[in-house]
Amino acid sequence: MELSEDCRLANQAESSSMSLFDSGSTNPFRAGFDNRAFIMGFPRKFPPRNEMRFSGSDEYVSTEDLTLAVNAAITLQRPLLVKGEPGTGKTMLAVQVAKTLGVPLLEWHIKSTTKAQQGLYEYDAVSRLRDSQLGDLRVQDINNYIVKGTLWQAFSMDQPCVLLIDEVDKADIEFPNDLLRELDRMEFYVYETRELVKAKNRPIVFITSNNEKELPDAFLRRCFFHYIRFPDKETMERIVQVHYPALKKSLLKEAMEVFFEVREVPGLKKKPSTSELLDWLKLLLAEDIPPEALRAKDRKTIIPPLHGALLKNEQDVHLFERLVFMTRAKGA
Q1: CA angle, corner 19, sides to 25 and 109, nearest 5?
Q2: How far is CA 134 from CA 29, 84, 141, 143, 146, in A?
Q3: CA–CA separation, 50 vs 68, rounded Å?
Q4: For 54, which DSSP code?
Q5: What is the pLDDT along the chain (332 residues), one digit of tens a residue?
Q6: pTM of the shown model
Q7: Could you tell me the sign of the dihedral formed by the alpha carbons of 280, 281, 284, 290, in that order?
Q8: How many whole angstroms separate alpha carbon 165 and alpha carbon 30?
């Protein structure tokens, strides 16, 4: 019995979408890479890239200037380099853009030991040597030992996708320079197979950085840059409402005052971020902490309850205690 045309196309689509996972699911060499590929629900037909526009989402509060930056990068077909404090939503931006546009998302999370070559491909010579000693016929085809990286996966997709290169500043200083040609021309050469890999569809590239080290000028020239400023109180309230729509206004008001008071303490080694505020609010709700507990005048409760979600080292805790005690003593 012959399959209908629709069934045949559906089977082909399922096979191609799952190949990203199947090729590495049983390969221990591939499992060592810190990258992931996510295929989200997306429409059968994709709009042309010049018609793709990001306008924010219900799950992510995007300011006007951030929305403009995303659309500018899409129009220019250049990577969007996003900097900002840790916890300000840089990584989630790429996730939400992919979800809003209805395209697949591929993620490459960078570590201090990550090399640019791993994003392209790696040749597993050890496995090939072992197979040759065992008489495995797979050794006759070198393609069996080419491990495709995240960039190769993105270049091979038959539809547009979002490619996230996360925390690029963690890697060696030469890492960005090693990707200049690949990100600019969207192609690279595989020397083992003498193959030139070109992107079928130019991916929408997001590159995040926590500003731990300076990036090379040649790399910056090829990017569209945006710095996510720390949200003001009004924007922060909108962010909180997205995550906790049922949060009482009285608790939100007190929590926001305490949070920004902590951030304004001079000399903190690490200021609390947006993600840490959300974690703190989650704990306050879980423990049913009343709003008045956040403004206790008792010396024993001079710092806010569950402060471990906001202050992450003992020096900052002691500094905050001293400053608040001195402030209250002057006001007494």
Answers
A1: 65
A2: 18, 52, 15, 18, 19
A3: 14
A4: -
A5: 444 444 444 444 444 433 333 333 334 333 333 444 444 444 445 555 656 889 888 899 999 999 999 999 999 999 999 999 888 899 999 999 999 999 999 999 999 999 999 999 999 999 999 999 998 888 999 999 999 999 999 999 999 999 999 999 999 989 999 999 899 999 999 999 999 999 999 999 999 999 888 999 999 999 999 999 999 999 999 999 999 999 999 999 999 999 998 999 888 889 999 999 999 999 999 999 998 888 765 544 567 888 889 988 888 888 887 776 676 566 55
A6: 0.78
A7: positive
A8: 18
Burial class, 214, CB count within 10 angstroms (exposed 0-12 / middle 13-18 / buried 19+): exposed
Structure tokens given for 247: 């949060």
Max distance between CA atoms of the chain, in angstroms, equals 89
**How many secondary structure helices (H) and strands (E) does the chain include?**
13, 10
Tokens of 260: 């920004």
107, 150 in Cβ contact below 8 A? Answer: yes
**Angstrom distances, CA of residue 313 to CA of 268, 269, 270, 302, 320:** 10, 8, 8, 17, 11
Q: Which helix (H) or strand (E) holds 270?
A: none
Provide the β-strand partners of residue 226. 82
By the 8 A CB rule, do 61 and 239 touch? Answer: yes
Q: Which of 70, 97, 74, 81 is nearest to 227 (CA)?
A: 81
